[in-house]
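Collaborator request, handled under Task 6.
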Amino acid sequence: MLDKIDQRIFFKPEYYLGNERDGYVLTRSLLDLGLTTVHSRGVYKNTEGKICNSILYHPFETLPTSFTGMAFKIYHEGMKVGKGDDSRYYPPYIELKCSPAKILQGHNVFGSDNIFHGAMEMLGWLYMSNPKLTEMLDLDNAVVLCLDVTYSARLANDDQVNKALDFMRNVTSKHIRKSTKVRCFENTVYWGSERCKRLARKLYGKNVEFHKQLKEQILLANKNDKNAMRVVQVMQDSRLQEWTKGLIRLETGMKAYWLDEQGLPLKLFDLIDYQDKNPNFLQDLWLKANAEIFKTLEGEFMNVTNDEDVFNLLANTYQVYTKSGKLSLTRPRNLKRFYDDIRQYGCDVLKKRYSKAQYSRYMADLIDAGIPKAVLQNLHDQKDNNVIRFVELLKIDFGKQVPDWYEEPVSTFDFRPQPKLRLVS
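Structure tokens returned to the collaborator:
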């Protein structure tokens, strides 16, 4: 499911002055653009005692849709990118972002992968909210800043979801840093920095998030918010609520930098054309983006609390015979000792006790023997073997992401560039 589109849309050149070296400025005042909110970085009284303001700017505001709102902001002086001699300026632009599923159907429990309908709905409501501003924008050259793509796995119940989250909180890999947001975000596991320029990943239980959002919308509906009333009506569907139970989701924010590295077009309409020719490309991207996470779950051996079984596994994998024909179990014993240390002290402690090369070699040997990396990283916290059985269940079935009664929403807006007429002699 496509869970967020973040767009950058530049103003048409006739509405700004400047250049990419020295900077740009919008030739229209923010006060004349029909904005709900304009802030000032300076307020003062002139010599006549009149209150004046200076350095206006536009904070993020929310634009209405049929359901939930869209985040919207004008960068009237563009933006500086790069450092030193490599720095340059972007011309003035707006940023527009939201969940396409939420504005098309009132929820994001499940939804479409279709970029076109989501993006058109966003542009349509931008136009409905502020047609004057929209006419000033170069929609044909809108670019994608980020796509959030989400797919789900179904566990037996929400108790299993909570155990899975606790388990995955310890998972780390070469390019995936361990989550530090534990206490404040108990229903969500984050990997990496919020400001990372490539990928932002999080794993969470949908049922908890869904009911939290429903409670928020009910409060708004009780204040006579018409949009919230429509959202509540959608979210109170018993079929929808039933679908959220036991649902665990891996959401991946794919930033423009990473999309460009994959050779994908960043212009919105070029990306739409690309999806027309490659309808499953978001699934492929999602799998590629999360390959390291899934790799930590690879391995067949799960009976990690039985010492005899663990040693037999290592002995069968790494036993060797000396030149004299004598069986040597030195390597399996060393690995079992390292394994026991993991169980007693945890991976974080052992990283400090062993050299980087030695730690990496021992871990690689255990993983190659068939013990999943994620299991090793959780071994210190394991109380019984049942807790990790979810590893066998955390399977993403792309064919079962939506219920059989789901009807894919279609946008009524269309802002595709019109073909230019050409005179033929």
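The cover message to the collaborator said: "The chain has two domains: 2-43+51-296, 307-393. The first helix runs from residue 100 to 105. Please let us know whether this matches your experimental observations."
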